[in-house]
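Inverse folding, one chain.
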């Protein structure tokens, strides 16, 4: 048997017809619209924003959110499969989708007023509007509770001061979900593009996620209407609740990235000859491929189980941490093995490997670093928080 595909344990049989159909549709979209041009986008540091409307038309934005607000109302497993297939193309396109879906639409849906939901969700789902999520600050990444950004109530307005760093979609966003302290409590605010006192500065010189927009957001006496507060937000648990959804999608996404590296490696191992033989005939090369397929299969099963638990209402954020930590670290190891297996070609954008490998360095860090997720699990196991 040869296994160029990544469904070694027939996981397809564990999916419903609808789940397979969405997965195959997104796979076709990525093969046709993302993969042919993504290396150039990465090289030019251009995010393929023209694909956003198409994602909206396909009904793959805000996948788990309710149909009454123009969203697809799909399951968490469907959402995971969408992220897996998008990141098989590139982490940047998955980043766009997971920020828009889980970090912008979810908080509006979960913590927003009825008016905010009706105003924003349908346009965000169609890809006509774009959002970003500002939690991290230059001096507060793993420890967002230490944030310095402040909101002060002033008559019928809130006035925001502070800044956010490393914000995906920042420069292209119509609306920013911004987390700031109001009377000492973390609350969510909607800040619209063009509001006086709000600027977004593009972060350049990235060697990772080059096909994604990353920005600094600055708020200088930025006055927003009082009705732009997310009324049901309150405490750090509000942004962390959004992160749970996005981290879950990232676990699937990183697995998609690993699948792309593995598939390219199997092809390369069969085609590339050295010492008059395909390199795939050497035991050390076979070892790499066997390790890759084993870790991909384990991640697929873990992701699927966490998704099913979420769909049954039994998912816990500690489950998500395990899946995110496992998938991102294994995907990075797989990408590095694939890079090695491709020899010098492994550093060229002619092959997808170095792009995935560099992207995965960010994916390993954002939405909670590998070590932060280890500590979340350590807390779960011992009952003792070791963050500080
Ligand atoms: P701690 O005291 O542990 O928790 C504060 C409150 O939050 C609750 N909680 C959660 N609730 C829902 N979901 C979760 N995942 C939760 N984790 C914790 C917790 O129960 C508590 O509730 P309550 O009611 O008792 O107040 O908070 P801490 O300050 O000790 O920090 C804990 C820590 C380190 C785990 C947390 O702050 C953390 O997760 N840090 C990592 C930060 C992070 O992930 N940032 C991501 C920024 S967004 C991003 O990266 C987007 S990239 C997107 C892309 O392009 O794809
Ligand atoms: P730090 O927190 O300074 O961590 C540095 C090192 O210290 C890490 O190895 C970490 O594990 C370790 N460390 C920290 N605390 C502890 C501890 N208690 N115990 C042990 N080790 C510890 N943020 C947003 O809000 N919105 C976005 O859209 C967004 N998009 C991003 C896009 C990209 C491309 C990148 C790279 C980042 C993005 N981020 C975003 C920020 C991201 O969430 C943070 O980078 C991440 O949370 C880590 O924070 P930090 O970079 O400040 O690292």
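Residues assigned per position:
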């Amino acid at each position: 048997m040869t296994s160029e595909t990544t469904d070694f344990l027939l996981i397809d049989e564990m999916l419903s017809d609808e789940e397979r159909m969405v997965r195959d549709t997104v796979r076709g979209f990525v093969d046709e619209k993302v993969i042919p041009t993504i290396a150039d986008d990465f090289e030019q540091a251009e995010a393929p924003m023209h694909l956003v409307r198409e994602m909206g038309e396909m009904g793959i934005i805000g996948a788990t959110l309710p149909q009454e607000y123009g969203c697809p109302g799909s399951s968490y497993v469907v959402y995971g499969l969408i992220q897996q297939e998008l990141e098989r193309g590139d982490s940047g396109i998955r980043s766009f989708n997971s920020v828009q879906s889980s970090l912008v639409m979810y908080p509006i849906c979960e913590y927003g007023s009825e008016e905010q939901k009706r105003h924003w969700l349908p346009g965000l789902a169609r890809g006509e509007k774009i959002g970003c999520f500002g939690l991290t600050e230059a001096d507060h990444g793993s420890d967002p509770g230490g944030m310095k950004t402040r909101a002060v109530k002033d008559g019928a307005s809130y006035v925001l001061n502070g800044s956010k760093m490393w914000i995906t979609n920042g420069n292209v966003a119509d609306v920013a979900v911004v987390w700031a302290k109001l009377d000492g409590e973390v609350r969510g605010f909607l800040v619209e593009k063009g509001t006086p006192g709000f600027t977004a500065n593009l972060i350049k010189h990235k060697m990772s996620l080059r096909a994604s927009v990353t920005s600094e957001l600055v708020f200088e006496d930025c006055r927003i209407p009082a009705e732009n507060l997310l009324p049901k937000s309150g405490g750090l648990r509000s942004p962390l609740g959004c992160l749970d959804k996005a981290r879950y999608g990232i676990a699937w996404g990183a697995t998609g990235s690993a699948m792309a590296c593995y598939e390219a490696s199997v092809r390369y191992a069969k085609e590339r000859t050295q010492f008059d033989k395909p390199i795939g005939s050497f035991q050390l090369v076979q070892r790499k491929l066997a390790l890759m397929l084993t870790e991909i299969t384990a991640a697929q099963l873990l992701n699927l189980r966490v998704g099913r638990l979420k769909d049954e209402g039994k998912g816990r954020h500690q489950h998500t941490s395990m899946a995110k930590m496992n998938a991102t670290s294994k995907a990075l190891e797989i990408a590095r093995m694939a890079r090695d297996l491709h020899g010098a070609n492994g550093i060229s954008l002619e092959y997808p490997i170095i792009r995935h490998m560099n992207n995965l360095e960010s994916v390993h860090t954002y939405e909670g670093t590998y070590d932060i997720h280890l500590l979340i699990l350590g807390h779960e196991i011992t009952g003792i928080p070791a963050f500080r």
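The two ends are 51 Å apart (CA to CA). The mean pLDDT is 97.
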